[in-house]
Amino acid sequence: MMPMSRVRAIACLDAAYSSTAAAAACVMIKRWDAKGAGRIEVRRFDGPPENYEPGAFYKRELPLLMSIISEFEDAIEVIVIDGYVWLGANNQPGLGGHLFSGLERRIPVIGIAKTRYRNDTWSTPVLRGESRRPLFVTSAGIHKETAAECICLMHGDSRIPTILALADRTAREELGRRK
Q1: pLDDT tens, 94-111?
Q2: CA angle, 168 as apex, 12 and 11 as ends, to 5°?
Q3: Backbone dihedral region of 151: left (phi > 0), alpha (psi from -120 to 50 degrees) or beta?
């Protein structure tokens, strides 16, 4: 069997912050409907994280995500992030757009936002499970309807896909560990 590091996979990424540290997690799966992780990577970054800057969230989170995927990016077929890829219909880059550019447009990026960005008319709303609140899906390197279908296929009966929730929980748990 080929090691997971060489198998093309879907990488779900998330980060967590405190006033003194940050953590990033990557949960790798081989299929959109996977119930569990094929591989989990997590990194802790001690020291105060970059300040939050409205409309420039990528400045805070992009270095964390790039760091965690750098060692196995050749194994990644597509990346799923918690956030927007585009911040406007004119393709103003959000976190996902900056990630796509940072990876030299080689790996498609799908963004799942839980909250609608101001005046959003460009994302594809996706309802999952019994939720009446949509997720807002944007993408780069993959057609937005295909990206939305992929998110619908992800495991879980709740609004947030199981694997993306696992990435969030893993980053938070790492952040909570005392170093």
Answers
A1: 999 999 999 999 999 999
A2: 10
A3: alpha
